[in-house]
Design brief:
The chain has a four-stranded antiparallel beta sheet, with helices on one face. Strands 5-6-7 form a three-stranded antiparallel beta sheet, with no helix packed on it. Helix content is 21%, strand content 33%.
Length: 145
């Protein structure tokens, strides 16, 4: 990304892009050594908050240095939502009960039923597993503290 424009600022192995997404939100790139491997991360930070860049770095370190690679149910659902093509996801409309309208929906294939439309938040563990890529299907869930 350094070949595009000069950065807004550089602090060690972290830099912010000069072009803002909106207001004071811009891309921030991190180079972080984790478990003897150099890793690269891209995030969006609100630079009007003086602590946002360091707070994001802490979140990255916390997430990436967990002793066992895990995903919470919410992370699994967000992964499914973000990787499902627009033609196979949407929002509950007028045909749904009033309480469910506007909630996220995905199309599933069920043996015997064919394709069905279901609320993302109502997916069973088996349905979530089926929608995840193979390398993420058997990760343990985080345990609530």
């Amino acid at each position: 990304m350094l070949d595009v424009l000069p950065p807004l600022w550089m602090r060690g192995l972290t830099f912010a892009m000069r072009e803002f997404m909106t207001g004071s939100v811009t891309s921030v790139f991190y180079t972080i050594r984790i478990d003897d491997a150099v890793r690269f991360f891209h995030t969006y930070c609100n630079l009007s908050d003086a602590n946002s860049v360091e707070a994001m770095r802490s979140v990255i370190l916390d997430r990436e240095t967990r002793p066992v690679r895990v995903m919470s149910r919410e992370e699994r659902l967000e992964h499914i939502w973000s990787t499902t093509a627009d033609d196979y996801r949407g929002y509950a409309g007028e045909r749904w009960p009033a309480a469910d309208r506007g909630k996220r929906t995905v199309i599933l294939y069920r043996q015997g039923d064919g394709t069905i439309l279901k609320l993302l938040d109502d997916l069973s563990d088996a349905e979530i597993s089926a929608k995840l890529p193979v390398h993420l299907r058997h990760l343990p869930e985080t345990v609530a503290v």
